[in-house]
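Example: Pilus assembly protein PilZ.
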Amino acid sequence: MTDVSLSTDQNVLNKMDIGARVIIEITCPNGQSAQASSTLIGFKKGQYVFIEYPISPPLEFNKIYLEGAEVTFRSITNTTHRDVIAFRTQVHSVIYRPMEMICLHAPKSISMRQIRTHQRLETKFSCNLAVGSHNLTGVMTDFSVGGCAVSLPAKLNSNNLLNQKVSVSIELETVAPITVTGEIKNVDAKEKQSKLGVMFDSGNMSESDLQTLHHQCILKGWS
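Written out as structure tokens, the predicted fold is:
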């Protein structure tokens, strides 16, 4: 069962990285609603949370109605388990200069839900991905016994990748590559970069392979 914790401590917001991806659901006073992706700009503890104005036709249509709109905010924390952080609040205002952004009232309570069973370790291993007939080259930025994140230097089409089977070959400096199979569960595509979340097939990451990756992480940290 997934654990959900509820907190009134505004310091929980520090668990989000500035620039992190945000998913918002907005219900405007005119009754219309929309969901969109945004980016966290920052926050003033206990007062406001600032996010970029999403590029989304439904929200553009309702821009003049946004003030006072009800908002459900979701993002991923920078903790080792990459928990989901979520809260409900209201739009305080829309800011137009020096850039368009939405100012939200600081939440009164914040919930966190653990979505990963295994702790992930940050690293930078070169890797090759085989997705169907396509081959991609990227950098594995974190991993655990259950999955990994891979960064690629291009904006990819999520429709062609999401829920697709993938083989990941992890390049290591002093030992043979480690290959694991899994499924692409998340695609975060930006202007010049994409990040894939891969869930390994059950039992696919052996204890020996996991120990090898841990050891290589330590060696990279010393180099």
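The chain has two helices and 14 strands.
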